[in-house]
Write a structure and sequence with these properties.
The complex is a heterodimer of chains A (241) and B (315).
Chain A lengths: L4 E12 L2 E12 L3 E5 L6 H9 L6 E6 L2 E2 L5 H6 L2 E4 L11 H10 L8 H14 L15 H14 L4 E5 L7 H13 L5 E5 L3 H7 L2 E6 L2 E6 L1 H6 L1 H8 L2
Parallel strand pairs in A: 3-8, 3-9, 6-7, 7-8
Antiparallel strand pairs in A: 1-2, 1-4, 4-5, 9-10
Helix pairs in contact in A: 3-5, 4-5, 4-6, 5-6
Chain B lengths: L1 H22 L2 H27 L7 H16 L5 H23 L4 H21 L1 H4 L5 E2 L6 E4 L2 E4 L3 H24 L2 H10 L1 H6 L4 H27 L1 E2 L7 H13 L6 H19 L3 H15 L4 H10 L2
Antiparallel strand pairs in B: 1-4, 2-3
Helix pairs in contact in B: 1-7, 2-7, 2-10, 2-11, 2-12, 3-4, 3-10, 4-10, 7-10, 11-12, 12-13
Classes of the chains: A alpha/beta (241), B mainly alpha (315).
């Protein structure tokens, strides 16, 4: 089954003071497709995410989203088009209550997801399972870092994104919390595409339909999880086998 | 519950302020007028400081725009006092529109420095055109030009009652703006911007637009304060647009409790009264003021209102 590309990244290059961090990166994400971007530290994974969400401008190349060039758009406009991102570090607002955090994210949802009510209630259900709903009117600091991460992913999901980019969402989380994050991703349904930047290979293999491997700013290979884990150069560069 | 408590406190304070004019003797009456005019300025400043965490050292230029435009229009008999206030306030908004695209591109220390530089430019422009502005010596608004036509009647703005109620009306406008932001939950978004602009933008909010909105509200209300100052004090002068007058609203808002509706009024009243009492004893009154400020910051870092809330109201 061939899917229309939701996101097209074309010849994306980023240089910082002459040092090339990403070079000629070229890949697509189809509607509803779940891909993972993996690679050793310094491979350019977070830079790639920052280019897609608009926090950085590329030195060269194009980003096309839903058939529209978004290379020059500011971050808030990309978010309004349905690209949601969770930061590598925990990005909840500490001066607001947990409820205000979630509501702030929910307000920007433009009804993109036809299952909006279902998604909202599914996410609240996950927060309930984590025991977070009883603390909704307190600041996020009362929660463990793992639960703060869950709130952050919940905020991203509440925006009803068409493309959800998660930067190391399972960092520092236990099995149970990883399971809850997985539930939220599932709740978004098969119309939402996912780009996950992750070191946890077990989680990647469970979720991703396609894996893009970055090494020193270039795409080393891409393919299905089976193809990637058996790829010799990937084993050498990343998996260390 | 908190919202209801804020509204009730707000209404009670306004009622007290209204009733005070009937019991105060002439000097405290005029002091209260001055406090209310400055509290408008503190409320305006607090929009930027309390809700967005932005420290401006250039707000005296918006205060000055209202002050000079209103004052000069009246002195030169160009329009009636009411129109002069409207034009004065509008000129502060225009100055905000003109400066915001440059100032709001910066953050943190750069914003502070840039606001300071632009207000210094304003200050020196006032000095430079002293043949129009009166320079450091300033100009006095003639009594006979401070009458305001209201239908068949004339309101005499030189009367203490009229000045008091004009200041009170301005304060109601300024505090209602803060209250509306607070009640409409717009403050939640502003506090998110204050904490992390990038993260808020990634949620889909146009951070620049919201900062611009608050900045223009703040400059407009600062202009209203300046405009009312020229009418109530009957004086315009360069000292009122010096950097001191950008630092004062910062102190008022911090002392009262930044990000609160009533805090700026509390802080302004406290500092104005302290200065007033200290200056009646010694010409080195700023030493007493400084010691009081240090003591207050050490005992109530969250501001007077914040201290009252946590100590006595337990909220």
């Amino acid at each position: 089954m061939s899917k229309e590309p939701l996101l097209q990244v074309r010849d994306l290059t980023k240089k910082f003071d002459g040092a090339t961090v990403l070079e000629d990166v070229d890949f697509t994400i189809a509607e509803g497709e779940k891909i993972a971007v993996i690679g050793p530290n310094g491979a350019g994974k977070t830079t790639l995410a920052n280019l897609i969400i608009g926090r950085l401008r590329p030195t060269r190349g194009r980003i096309i989203y839903m058939g529209r060039e978004i290379t020059g758009l500011p971050p808030h406009m990309r978010a309004r088009l349905g690209i949601s991102y969770t930061l590598q570090s925990i990005g909840v607002f500490r001066t607001l209550t947990i409820r205000e955090n979630v509501e702030l994210a929910e307000k920007t949802a433009l009804g993109r997801n036809h299952r909006r009510e279902y998604v909202s209630s599914a996410i609240i259900q996950v927060l309930e399972m984590a025991g977070i709903t009883s603390q909704m009117d307190r600041p996020p600091s009362v929660l463990s870092p793992g639960h703060q991460r869950i709130v952050e992913v919940a905020m991203a999901a509440m925006t009803m994104p068409s493309l959800l980019i998660l930067d190391e969402p399972t960092q520092g989380l236990g099995e149970q919390d990883i399971g809850l994050i997985n539930r939220m991703i599932e709740a978004l349904g098969d119309k939402t595409s996912l780009m996950i930047i992750e070191h946890n290979i077990e989680f990647v293999l469970k979720i991703a339909e396609k894996i893009v491997v970055l090494d020193r700013g270039r795409i080393l290979t891409e393919g299905t999880p089976e193809e990637v884990v058996t790829n010799e150069s990937v084993q050498r560069v990343y998996l260390g086998r | 519950m908190n919202a209801r408590r804020t509204i009730v406190s707000y209404l009670i304070i306004l009622l007290i302020l209204y009733l005070l004019q009937f019991v105060l003797s002439p000097y405290p009456h005029s002091l209260m007028t001055r406090i209310m005019v400055f509290a408008i300025y503190a409320s305006a400043y607090n929009l930027l400081l309390g809700f967005l965490g932005m420290i401006s050292l250039g707000h005296s230029m918006y205060f000055g725009a209202g002050l000079y435009v209103t004052g000069l229009l009246i002195i030169n008999k160009l329009v009636d006092p009411f129109s002069a206030i409207i034009i004065g306030v509008f000129s502060a908004t225009l100055l905000g529109v003109a400066t915001a695209p440059i100032l709001l591109r910066t953050r943190g220390p750069m914003f502070i420095i840039l606001t300071l530089m632009t207000s210094l430019a304003f200050y020196y422009a006032v000095i430079l055109f002293n043949n129009v502005t009166g320079g450091e010596q300033g100009l006095v608004l003639p009594l006979e030009r401070l009458t305001l036509p209201a239908g068949k009647f004339l309101i005499d703005l030189t009367s203490p009652v009229a000045r008091y109620n004009a200041a009170l009306l301005g304060l109601i406008i300024a505090m209602s703006t803060s209250l509306t932001i607070y009640l409409k939950k717009y403050s939640t978004l502003l506090l998110a911007i204050k904490e992390n602009e990038d993260r808020t933008e990634l949620l889909g909010y146009d951070v620049y637009r919201h900062k611009l909105t608050v900045f223009l509200l703040s400059s407009t209300l600062s202009g209203l304060s300046g405009s009312l100052y020229s009418i109530t004090a009957r004086y315009i002068g360069a000292s009122l647009v010096s950097v001191n007058y950008s630092i004062m609203p910062l102190l008022w808002a911090l002392l009262g409790g930044q990000g609160t509706v009533l805090g700026p009024l509390v802080g302004t009243a406290f500092l104005t009264v302290i200065i007033d009492i200290a200056s009646s004893y010694t010409s080195s009154y700023l030493i007493i003021v400084g010691i009081s400020l240090i003591a207050l910051v050490l005992t109530a870092p969250e501001g007077l209102l914040g201290r009252i809330k946590t100590r006595w109201l337990r909220v």
